[in-house]
């Protein structure tokens, strides 16, 4: 014969425990479903496409920055001028950090590090950046980029010649990247790309003044 203990203190405690557990489970399931729905909506609304300004800027500016890092790394390791070494180190560290940010965004967005298309800057409106060559499919070389011959020459120089040539190449490189940064700051859909492009605009504009001043101190002019 089954013992009937309904209404006892132990029975009441078990009921409270079961009901509390059920309520907690419902809340957890509800929260999880809500989070998944929210993430899905946010992702659909904010993930840039392959043709977007955000993705194009992140892909092309990475390439632009990588060359600056290459030149800065060489100058830092081979100059004997402490002011050039310090500037090269700052440029290298700043742009490496920005490359890391852009690489992370592309990974989150499910986009490749580099565009599969052959040209650069196709994500900018035709003619708006002042480089209309092959505008619909982009340009073959981004403004400010050094040629392979110029990079090779930099690596042959020493002393003042190395310092001056590095400053000249970097000045041209910095100036060449401003159009892309300005366009992204005005047209990107995501706040992170707009914020970074604005930082690049301000940072490189300040460094351009420093580069011009350092060239003048060495009796040299921009390329």
- Uncertain residue segments: 126-133
Instruction: Compute the average pLDDT.
Output: 85
The appropriate CATH architecture of the domain at 53-125 and 140-218 is Up-down Bundle
Helix and strand content put the structural class at mainly alpha
CATH homologous superfamily (4th level) name of the domain at 53-125 and 140-218: Ferritin, core subunit, four-helix bundle
State the share of residues found in helices, binned by percent: 55-70%
The major β-sheet equals:
none
User: What is the beta-strand fraction?
Assistant: under 5%
Q: Using the coordinates above, name the CATH class of the domain at 53-125 and 140-218.
A: Mainly Alpha
H/E series: HHHHHH
CATH topology heading of the domain at 53-125 and 140-218: Ferritin
Report the span from N to C terminus: 102 Å
Radius of gyration: 28 Å
In terms of quaternary structure, what is this? Answer: single chain
Give a short summary of the structure.
The protein has 223 residues and is mainly α. The chain has a domain at 53-125 and 140-218: Ferritin, core subunit, four-helix bundle (Ferritin). It is 69% helix and 0% strand.
Name the features.
223 residues, mainly alpha, Ferritin, transmembrane helix, Ferritin-like
Question: What does this protein look like?
Answer:
This protein has a domain of 152 residues: Ferritin, core subunit, four-helix bundle (Ferritin). The protein contains six helices and no strands. The longest helix is centred in the N-terminal third of the chain and has 38 residues. The chain has 223 residues and is mainly alpha-helical. About 4% of the residues have low confidence. Helix 5 runs antiparallel to helix 6. It is elongated and about 95 Å long. 69% of the residues lie in helices and 0% in strands.
């Amino acid at each position: 014969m089954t013992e009937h203990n309904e209404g006892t203190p132990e029975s009441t405690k078990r009921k409270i425990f079961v009901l509390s557990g059920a309520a907690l489970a419902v809340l957890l399931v509800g929260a999880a479903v809500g989070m998944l729905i929210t993430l899905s909506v946010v992702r659909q609304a904010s993930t840039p496409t392959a043709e977007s300004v955000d993705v194009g800027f992140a892909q092309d500016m990475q390439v632009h920055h990588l060359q600056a890092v290459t030149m800065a790394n060489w100058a830092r390791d081979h100059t004997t001028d402490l002011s050039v070494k310090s500037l090269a180190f700052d440029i290298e560290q700043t742009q490496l950090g920005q490359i890391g940010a852009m690489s992370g965004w592309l990974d989150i967005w499910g986009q490749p590090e580099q565009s599969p298309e052959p040209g650069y800057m196709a994500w900018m409106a035709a003619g708006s950046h002042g480089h209309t060559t092959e505008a619909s499919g982009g340009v073959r070389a981004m403004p400010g980029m050094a040629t392979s011959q110029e990079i090779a020459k930099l690596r042959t120089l020493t002393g003042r010649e190395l310092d001056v040539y590095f400053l000249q190449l970097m000045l041209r490189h910095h100036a060449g990247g401003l159009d892309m940064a300005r366009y992204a700051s005005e047209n990107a859909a995501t706040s992170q790309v707009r914020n970074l492009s604005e930082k690049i605009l301000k940072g490189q504009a300040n460094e351009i003044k420093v580069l011009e001043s350092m060239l003048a101190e060495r009796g040299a002019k921009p390329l």
